[in-house]
Amino acid sequence: MTTEDLLDPKVVSSAAEGPLAPLVSVEDYTRMYEASVQDPHRFWAKEGKRIDWITPFTKVKNTSFEPGNIDIRWFEDGTLNVSANCIDRHLEARGDQTAIIWEPDSPEDPALHITYRNLHRSVCRMANVLKGLGVGKGDRVVIYLPMIPEAAYAMLACARIGAIHSIVFAGFSPDALGARINGCDAKVVITADYAPRGGRKTPLKSNTDTALLHCKDDVQCLVVKRTGGQTTWTDRDHDYNALSADASVDCSPEEMSAEDPLFILYTSGSTGQPKGVVHTSGGYLVYAAMTHEVTFDYRDGDVFWCTADVGWVTGHSYIVYGPLANGATTIMFEGVPTYPDAGRFWQVCAKHKVNQFYTAPTAIRALMGAGKEWVEKHDLSDLRLLGSVGEPINPEAWNWYNEVVGKGKCPIVDTFWQTETGGHMLTPLPSTKLKPGAAQQPFFGVRPVVLEPTSGEVIEGNGVEGVLCMGDSWPGQMRTVWGDHARFEKTYFSDYKGYYFSGDGCRRDEDGDYWITGRVDDVINVSGHRMGTAEVESALVAHAKVAESAVVGYPHDVKGQGIYAYVTLMNGEEPSDALRKELETWVRTEIGPIAKPDLIQWAPGLPKTRSGKIMRRILRKIAEDDFGSLGDTSTLADPSVVDDLIENRMNRG
Ligand code: 6R9
Questions:
Q1: CA 516 to ligand 1 center in whole angstroms
Q2: ipTM higher than 0.95?
Q3: Which of 97, 356, 438, 466 is most enclosed, with most CB atoms within 10 A?
Q4: Rounded to two decimals, what is the model's pTM?
Q5: Where's the AMP-dependent synthetase/ligase domain (predicted)?
Q6: Can you tell me the distance from the alpha carbon of 184 to that of 247, in angstroms, rounded to the nearest whole number?
């Protein structure tokens, strides 16, 4: 295969043709990568054609990381519709092919196979229902749904009429939902009666009602029936099932500019306030489609399964937009890895003859703990490739994934990327000689640089470590923070001028391969979910009995990182187990179950500098049960608080 061939955008050949040579060989990678960074205009001009344009673009890249002028545009004079790219253009050749396999929470319930033709009908109906509620181009729609087909319909329906969706993970609390509805001034929120997950049911509609108490009166609520369970009904509610039954199955797609926003997705940063990450239409779709095809070696006819939730960016890019843009068959799974038992993932793989399986290290570690017999019960012979995402994967989990799940014959692509990046940034390809735990090499067009953290100087050569930045833009890059472009610049472009700063540290080894070493800011990674320690702190101090709190991460066997909270109580309040439980429940309700502290330590005082800054370095060490090397403590205002914290530490070996 030549570079020219490969640059020809298409999903190639068929899985039925027997053992496959990797789509991109090692030689192709090297040559194409060089081409992509030397002449990004030429490279992306060709790749841009992998999707259909209404008005073809003539400009490819117009991007600036200049301080004071952060401006990112790709394919800016082109027009398109994302939903037409994910559905309509496949109808002729693949109308009867399954687009989405929906696997419900309970294995007792039947799976649904939704063809591209049926997807088209359902999306048009949803689009017409939204139009009927007055939603138009540029309006915001919040989606708070379980992992049901309607979540994908809602995303694509918004894209079809030019509305901007913002998905809120169904595990988030009413408060978090309300803040996101207000944050983007949404016209409609789409929810369901209940969200079944792991045999339990979350009352989404009643959560939404609570959230809406703090929102404008004119926000409307569209309710999908999932369980048929009882809900209360208010004036602003609309019954999705009734409205869609009467809606037309035709809705012509709106012509959108490449740089019109497609979605907003809130993500944690190092401040208490989550940021609304904005992705636009053209560049995002090109990048999601290309990475889905190339990284996962997706071939026509394959069944692809990404186990994420659409509430996270991984679900956006690799359950919905990337796979559907490529005309793939994608699985949407409503359940959890361990319900009804620890064989559920493997049972689903066998049942639907999954070819590519993409999950998070935290799930792998949990299933590893349950034992390999759960895997061996099921026929995984269709698996060709495994993927990992969300956090660094430890070699033990990598080896188990490789040997027990992949039987030593499936390459593992360890994909490093972020909500902000839209798609994979660093990842091995199936032809790469793999190193367990390394994200290894940049995807096409990505220019990683390692900087010295304090001076910001570029560190050249191999065998080096520093912070990970990007030297140039790529089409899937976020464009702004919703409503706050200054915050976009401050967060990502101000610490290291002229670069996009990822927030992660990395090592480039002797061979030039990249290893992510984890966040260098106050963001922790709990079960692959990003959590700002400041968010948990502000939830804790909002409790009447809490005076002060500091939250750090600590190593956790299954979750990767656990949440360790130091809490100073108000004068006169007594620590107790009951209060500890109360604070845990409090954080769950303020943010959601994923933010619940794993360990709470009562701290009579926190270690502070004379200027009042909390020395988190020390708190991290104590939480890690590694207090032998606390480093320089000479700037502490009162060194004795440290002794107390060490003595009463919660995490003992
Ligand atoms: C896609 C996603 C992003 C943060 C990122 C980094 C961590 C993601 C990783 C990884 C090591 C990998 N991360 N993938 N660390 N190896 N393969 O997870 O997006 O939720 O925004 O999180 O996750 O720390 O900065 P998001």
A1: 9
A2: yes
A3: 356
A4: 0.93
A5: 88-472
A6: 27
